[in-house]
Amino acid sequence: MPQLLNGNKSLERANIMKERIIKTSIELFDRKGFKETSVQEIVEVMGVTKGAFYYYYKSKEELLKDICISYMEDLLQQQQRILQDKEKSCTEKLYEIVYMLIRNIKARRKSARIFFREMRHLHEDHLQEIKAKRRAFREHYQQLIEAGIARGEFKPTLTPDMITFGILGITNWSYYWFQPDGEISEEALADIYVDLILNGIKNRESFKEK
Amino acid sequence: MPQLLNGNKSLERANIMKERIIKTSIELFDRKGFKETSVQEIVEVMGVTKGAFYYYYKSKEELLKDICISYMEDLLQQQQRILQDKEKSCTEKLYEIVYMLIRNIKARRKSARIFFREMRHLHEDHLQEIKAKRRAFREHYQQLIEAGIARGEFKPTLTPDMITFGILGITNWSYYWFQPDGEISEEALADIYVDLILNGIKNRESFKEK
Amino acid sequence: MPQLLNGNKSLERANIMKERIIKTSIELFDRKGFKETSVQEIVEVMGVTKGAFYYYYKSKEELLKDICISYMEDLLQQQQRILQDKEKSCTEKLYEIVYMLIRNIKARRKSARIFFREMRHLHEDHLQEIKAKRRAFREHYQQLIEAGIARGEFKPTLTPDMITFGILGITNWSYYWFQPDGEISEEALADIYVDLILNGIKNRESFKEK
Amino acid sequence: MPQLLNGNKSLERANIMKERIIKTSIELFDRKGFKETSVQEIVEVMGVTKGAFYYYYKSKEELLKDICISYMEDLLQQQQRILQDKEKSCTEKLYEIVYMLIRNIKARRKSARIFFREMRHLHEDHLQEIKAKRRAFREHYQQLIEAGIARGEFKPTLTPDMITFGILGITNWSYYWFQPDGEISEEALADIYVDLILNGIKNRESFKEK
DNA sequence: CATGAATGAGGCTTCATTCAT
DNA sequence: GATGAATGAAGCCTCATTCAT
């Protein structure tokens, strides 16, 4: 059976092509938007024809789904890896997630922005699947906050869900303005934000100095 | 010339009509997206015809510009009002801006989301104008942080620009999830976020307890 | 309200345009088939643009629906007119329906053939509606046969449903071959077929001659 | 040369494959239509690939031609077998043709409907070939009627061509509604229709009863 | 024999915008 | 001021067919 003989090879080739399509369209979707990017444009950039595109993707929407799902799954996986570590404190884990998200901007800023902005173009079922993953990410985050409270690392007075949304806002927003190759490094930004999250901006030393 | 005789009255009427168009399209643009909302749809909801639309707006894009600019100008104005107060400390002003932004969600969530997501459909010149206003809002915010540092209210070690982006992220993100008529009130959320920004989440009492 | 002032006039104009579209596409659908006729072709023949077509019809399928429904409704109406006559015998009514159907070929052959062949392109709901009308036509026909049996005009041994299908077959088939402007007239063909239906082809005189 | 060594064997295999393609596509063409059935669909149902299809058929149209021709040839052959019998009367032969056509529905309804509906997709030359066969079938039928008249079995007043079309209509139409496995058997239907054709529906006994 | 990637042409549909009335 | 018919350009998608392997 040919499937058994060259199945891997052609599967591989198909994946290579799909990867090329994804890479090209991430660039375009981020710059111009999903609706504003025509399939014609994607294939022109790639130097193939529309037929080729539709050989690999049933629809433009399916391509968007792939981009969104792969983005979210990657994020969930990285989060999982961090949370599973039993040696680290919640504070350390919080730092690692923040750092992971900031570091992620370099490789995934475009995907992330596509995810945030274009998700609504997905069909109901795909949308449900993706929203479930997004919710999972947030709930794991929140569980970390709750664990930190339980362990006495974080203030007992916190409202875990609101605080989680707030923390998420800080890093998510970075995807819109942070330039990973600019003056400030990813580590520095992660440090700044973890400090903001843990300690806030109020000057506690001011009283002593006076 | 009618302009001279009843100029005010017809200007007023034109504005009323424009307001109706804006109100209707904000609803649609937020729910379905700018590109996904056709002029046909807008006028159908309003019970008028396309001719009417194009009498008041040169193009669909001009309508979007109006929405975005009016959103941003309103925000700038409210910010200005808060910052001009010479009696209040920087901490108090920070609180007021956060509260203003959260409170704003009820009336302006849709406009805000349109602003964030659809801005890219504007022509270069409109885009410049709007980005300038957005930058101004952020710079005023940053100046408040810097003033707070200078006055010893905020830590001297802060990186004002990054911190400003972080603080902005917290509230901006709320526009995507916060339900003003849900369980938690706007005041409560503002309190939580100002506390997060000022004091962070670390439990400082824990040492005493040990 | 303009609707009240010129409503009739623009409605009329819309109908004129719809009629032109229908007329043009009946010609093409019959000659080439529904799927094989592109909207492009229809509008080219009409000398308008595709936009115009879609101003009047939501889709190509809706046009087909209009053609099919109007064909069937017209038929039902004519059948109704014949059946309602209380003076005539069943035999006379049978003759009139056969004659009506044959006469109808001249004006409606193309519609009829489109109806028979292209109906399957309609959406489920339209299909149901149309099939209901077709069924009604057949049931009225069958009721006429049953009435004729009851009145002693037709043989008591007949199987009304099968006979109805058979009679229908005779005239329906004519739509595929009969040329109304050929050598044989519509009246003559109707006479031939009614004689076939009533008396059959067997030579009953042959015995006497022997 | 393999042709010389195992020519028969591979010819046979090719025929087997062609038969499978035909069987599969008859099913699909009848259910969805010729144009509406893609080659992709046919090969998917068969579990092979497009390459295989195009190895056996030069084009989709050639496949349709095969289906139509084989349908018509089979019919002609069966008709020929009946007509050649020198023992039987014209009335008996008429009965046998009607019965043959009705019986044929079970095995060939789909082919027949494809023949009627999709013939127009054939190229001019194929079309000529097929129409010639269809004409031959009808002419043989008509010759039977004429012979019956000459032999005194059928009325001398009949118009053979019109009557032939009428008789054909009765059975052809059955292909659209008759369910061979329904309540009424093929024999019963053939009996009903031959009785209709020979004797008509008029009640001749009614006078006696009065 | 058979695969399956790729082409290219064409189809349906949408829509911002214009313009005569 | 407002209508609504019409345009024209563009978009998504399908599919028979080819061809290198």
UniProtKB/TrEMBL annotation, chains A, B, C, D:
Record's keyword terms, sorted: DNA-binding
SUPFAM superfamilies: Homeodomain-like, Tetracyclin repressor-like, C-terminal domain
PROSITE patterns membership: HTH_TETR_2
Keyword Secreted attached: no
Record domain HTH tetR-type: where: 15-75
One Pfam family, short name: TetR_N
DNA bind region: 38-57
Keyword Lipid biosynthesis in annotation: no
A molecular function (GO) term: DNA binding
This protein's name: Putative TetR family transcriptional regulator
Organism: Parageobacillus caldoxylosilyticus NBRC 107762
Lineage of source species: Bacteria, Bacillati, Bacillota, Bacilli, Bacillales
